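Re-run requested by the PI after the first attempt was lost when the workstation crashed. Everything re-entered from the original request form. Ligand of interest: N-(iminomethyl)-L-glutamic acid.
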Amino acid sequence: MTGNSPDLLIKNIGVLATPVGNCAAGGDGQSDIQFIENAFITVKDGVITVVGSAENLAHIIPGEKTVVIDAGGKLVTPGLVDSHTHLVFSGWRQKELSLKLKGMKYLEILKMGGGILNTVRNTRKASLDELVANGMKSLDRMLEHGTTTCEAKSGYGLNLEDELKSLMAIKEMDRYHPVDVVPTFMGAHAVPEEYRENKKEYLRLVVEEMIPRVARDKLAEFCDVFCEEGVFDIEESRYILECGRAHGLVPKLHADEITPMGGARLAAEVGALSAEHLIYATDDGIRAMAEAGTIAVLLPGTSFYLGESFARARTMIEAGVPVALATDFNPGSSPTESLQLVMNIACLKYRMTPEEVLTAVTLNAAAAINRASITGTIEVGKLADIVIWDAPDLDFIFYHYGVNLVRTVIKKGRVVVQ
Ligand code: NIG
Ligand code: FE
């Protein structure tokens, strides 16, 4: 009997709120949330085995070793998925804040050799162990705020050795931290200083040396490019993403973040799984994404922090583009690990409903990193990645803001935050 009893039983759930399915939800589907009142969940071997309502709880027979959690009548959702982070770096950039307050723009700081290039200098100097230690600390914060899976990009090495070091750091973190960390190669995050006068040669390095090596050593699943004025233009971005794809790396793209470049359309044309930022995406670009099924990963924390405009989330949802939300966690344009804060900003500035936002940080975010078949919803057969909130219902976490409302986090059936 003990063999069949669950490893974990979560009972007395006031309301369980989850999207359903294994595919990104767009259009009306974005707000399709299943609510179950007085619910319970059982877990075996890290996987959800039953999702039921209280009247069926009598059929569940806990064994001696079953861990029983009383959710106290509170809200339960899937673990959050942060589908866009620049987790691997050394050195914060708090000095940029005062420059920003004096009116200096993000791209001006980069042009002067600061910004991303400042972090590149520090990241190159850091050892693998230092990068892992920094990243683990941020992963702890993410987990405390409800994130159970995140994507992480390289892109502060910008040479073969330091890009490999960054991707190896991601591998280590994924191995040792409860949060699952999904790797993206972003050697095309900026043109490093030593290639400033010879961008062509840097492109050659990315395409002929970095991508083949990253693919050969299976260090990344995705390839991302910063398609931006003064960084990589449309044709350079296309070239890199197509080369990545030829080596098995799925394309993603930083598109139309600060300047309207036509990045949304490019993402659709190269069959990118997702396009990110999209603050200045045009109607044409949004239409192209809807037709191609490209997921929009929107980063409202970055708009907030850079003092930029906000992406047109409502237009995208109405056009049928599945929207995901992420932190963009990085030391320059979005120094926060809190996806909860991003959820609050999205609700108030994008005018996304709590239901739409929940889909955006669970199912759609998981789909944006090819993980929707294993996480992102509370359904039988998926990983038991679950958050118990100190909130009576879904609306509450969008209303009571600026504090951490996570009570308990469960990752693969194990209680990791209590
Ligand atoms: O997504 N845009 C490029 N990359 C990051 C910023 C990185 C940095 O400033 O260090 C972003 O905003
Ligand atoms: Fe980014």
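Saved to the shared folder this time. DSSP finds 15 helices and 16 strands in the chain.
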